[in-house]
Amino acid sequence: MKGKEPNPPAIVIGLDCITGLQTARILAGHDIPVIGIAGNRNHFCCRTTVCTQILTADLDTADFILLLQKLGPQLSQKAVLFPCTDICVRLISRYRRQLEPWFHIALPEPKVVETLMDKMNFLTYARHAGLPIPLTSLIHNRREAEEAAAHLSYPCVVKPSLKTELWRSQNLAKAYVAADAEELLTLYDKVGPYAGTLIAQEWVEGTDADLYSCNCYFDHNSNPLATFVARKVRQWPPHTGTSSLGVEVLDDTVLETTIELFQGIGYRGLGYVEMKRDSRTGNYYIIEPNIGRPTGRSAIAEGGNVELLYTMYCDLLERPLPPNRQQQYRETRWVYLRHDFQSAFYYWRRGELSLGDWWRSWQGSKVYAVFSWRDPAPFLADLGQSAALVLGAGRKKAKVRRPALVPRRKTI
After folding, report:
1. What pLDDT, in 10s, does the model give residues 167-213?
2. Distance from the Cα of residue 94 to its chain's centroid
3. Domain 135-202 coded CATH 2.40.50.140
4. Is 164 exposed, middle or buried (0-12, 13-18, 19+ CB in 10 A)?
5. Contact 35, 53 (CB under 8 A)
């Protein structure tokens, strides 16, 4: 009697980030063989033991596309691609015809990918579609920066239309906050040369806890097969960073806006929409969509018993969909331990978070960004690398000595 045929493999592109690590763990938990591709093999996430193999390629260029083209013919079954960074999504979209003989790809049409990935294109689309977005200025040059500085209200958020390789090479943040017109112009002079187009967007008043998100998966007919709504509790760095603690919530506005956005544009694949609720008016605004990939918070859906990534896997392979696709609102939490300690300490020092509030914010069922009893090596490596950075900074500081004070000679 023949044994059961093994599951087709999943290719996690971008294993060297927490999104890649979580994706690999989730898929391996369904007995799916996982092949990881990393740009930095020394990254702590690559210490995971859940992958059958880990390959290395430059993920910022078509180098990993060439690797996939070599890998594809060697596979016994057509594999499912799970890109975990924006640049990987964009390159897979552009080279999809060359990859489709060996890989299942869950992406909408190339035009839709370009519309949703480029913030300038998305803002233009959102305005025409009547979607809720904050008041925004597009800045291509110094003159437009001066015009935006004169008309926007403050504070405002400044970010690139697209995080290009040049932007990333300068180790620039994903967004900056300008307190006034002078600071906006200073920011433009500092980061403008590294961005084709800058976006200056009015700040939506509220705290980290007013930031909501919806993770989802849409099939080839733009039907939402799985959705999961959550909100941030804290993020790191504060105000413009990524989530360090999140909790699932019931919020129909976020869910309905997400479905309206993706169905209206004919979307297919994994999606994510971040929205912010204005604490003064109660109005919700779309901050940004992320498309074609899992996010750092995809694991909260799995922790809340919504099998988001496995739904995509089964749909692409035309298998029966998993039964667990309906959000049950158990207030499941997702936490990146190291970052949330940093964020909580920041707010505690400012007097904005008590120890009791911090403790209560952690209560309930939790899933972790990096920590895992079954796969502890990435967590330990993360702590080790962080400790090494702190100790290294301490040694450098200790080596800096003040010059000795030499009494000046009197002149006659």
Report:
1. 878 888 878 889 999 999 999 999 888 887 888 888 899 988 999 99
2. 21
3. no
4. middle
5. yes
Whether 37 contacts 67, CB under 8 Å: yes
Closest CA to 47 of 15, 23, 19, 9: 15
Report the distance separating Cα 288 and Cα 274, nearest Å.
6
pTM across the whole model:
0.87
Cβ atoms of residues 71 and 10 within 8 Å: no
Residue 197 pLDDT? 85
Nearest CA to 217 out of 205, 208, 209, 228 is that of 228
For residue 376, whether the previous peptide bond is cis, meaning omega lies within 30 degrees of 0, is no
Whole-angstrom Cα Rg for the chain: 23
Q: What is the DSSP letter of 196?
A: S
Of residues 31 and 2, more confidence is placed in: 31
- In this structure, whether the domain defined by 10-105 belongs to CATH 3.40.50.720 is answered with yes
Instruction: Give the model confidence (pLDDT) of 29-41 as tens digits.
Output: 999 999 999 999 9
The DSSP-derived string for 42-88 is TSGGGG-S--SEEEE--TTSTHHHHHHHHHGGG-SS-EEEEE-SHHH
Both ends of the chain: CA-CA distance in Å?
Answer: 108
Residue 262 CB neighbours (<10 A):
24
Helix, strand, coil tally for the chain in percent (to 5): 40, 20, 40
Sequence ranges of the chain with CATH classification 3.40.50.720: 10-105
318, 143 contact by CB (below 8 A):
no
Q: How far apart are CA 84 and CA 296, in angstroms?
A: 9
The boundaries of every CATH 3.30.470.20 domain in the chain are 208-368
| Closest of 217, 211, 157, 215 to residue 183, by C-alpha | 157
Residues of the chain with CATH 3.30.1490.20: 135-202
Handedness of CA 185, 289, 36, 45 (dihedral sign): positive
Query: In CATH terms, is domain 208-368 a member of 3.30.420.40?
Result: no
Query: How do beta strands 79-83 and 103-104 pair?
Result: parallel
